[in-house]
Amino acid sequence: MIRVLMVGSAPTERGGMATVTNLLLRHGSGVAQIRMITTHKEGPAATRLRLWLTGTLQVVKSLRYADVLHAHVSERGSVIRKGVLVWIAKAFRKPVVLHCHGAEFVDWYRGLPGLAKRLIALTFRQADLVAVLGSSWRTTYMDLLGVKRVVNLGNPIELPRTVSAAPGFKIVFLGRFGERKGSADVLSAVAGLSAPVELVMAGDGEVAETKALAARLGVNARIRTWISPEERDVLLSSAHVFVLPSRDEGLPMAMLEAMGHGLVPVVTPVGSIGEVVKDRENGLLVKAGDVGGLTRALQSLLDDPGLRARLAKAARSTVEPYEISRYMQILGRHWERLVTS
Q1: What pLDDT shows up at residue 239?
Q2: Which segments does the entry list as coiled coil (predicted)?
Q3: N or C: which end of the chain has fewer CB within 10 A?
């Protein structure tokens, strides 16, 4: 069986990259022997530096026993940390997969000075395979960095076996509170609906500011800090609409998970979202920052249960190919090709 050395942020961290890492670790045993080495965890700068150094040393010691290095990377410091590991792995003549999750990578990269861009592009070209979250990302990485071996993997999810039709009308927002995810737009849009609805918002970031805005707008929302996967599944199983009016995204795990539970996604066509959600086919698309459009989209679902049911069923069908067992089979074939070639 192929031996995969996986590196990245701690699986206990919050966010989509940690969720994907956890899924690969839990479900990957059927296709590979996976060992995880943590090279980053949120905390004081000295703690982060020490973890990076000790993690890098562990990678050096472990590479001789590995068949492939699989590195999860986002932007900024993550690129530097994984870039060092790419060069180390190539010195050991080991194939490398760079698994890209960073929604802000392109903007960050374009703002760098020329020499930094050339070094990063050269590092990405050393990878034997670059995995991205959508077809548009694939084109962008190939054009921007000159990378030739790029594949669209999307994101994996654990698909619930059944979807229950809960009574009522509940809207859910999951993500970091703040401008990038459009949490304030959610509250403003819900405030404009013709009738009160149940709204649950969970995440981290600007929690206090979000609660204050809800109070000013008179929106009766349950605003919670980050919830566990078990709490998330309970919440999604009782909801009807998932809303995420982001300004910038990759392919949100929360959206895919919500669609798997049969929620209608009301989202913005940024990042790779537009490749998954088609307007009025399996969800509703609104322009980023268009609060009026967001209100109208939510109102249409509130007014038309038939539309809501049709889109919910289509949303569930859309994400079935992202189910983790299928995902692992595809990823396993990529690992096998790298090793055997």
Answers
A1: 97
A2: none
A3: C
Longest distance between any two alpha carbons in the chain, whole Å: 63
Structure tokens at 182: 């459009």
243 secondary structure, DSSP code: E
- What CATH number is given for 2-156+323-340 in this structure? 3.40.50.2000
**Identical fold between 2-156+323-340 and 170-322:** yes
Cα separation, 246 vs 264, in Å, equals 16
Contact 321, 251 (CB under 8 A): no
Tell me which fold the domain 170-322 belongs to: Rossmann fold (3.40.50)
Residues 6+ apart with CB under 8 A from 232: 174, 202, 257
The residue written with tokens 């030739």 in the block is: 148
How far is residue 5's CA from residue 208's CA, in Å, rounded to a whole number?
40
Write down the mean pLDDT value for the chain: 96
Full-model pTM:
0.93
Output the CA torsion sign for 54, 59, 61, 62: positive
- For residues 73 and 250, give the distance between their C-alpha atoms in angstroms, rounded to a whole number: 13
Q: How far apart are the first and last CA of the chain?
A: 15
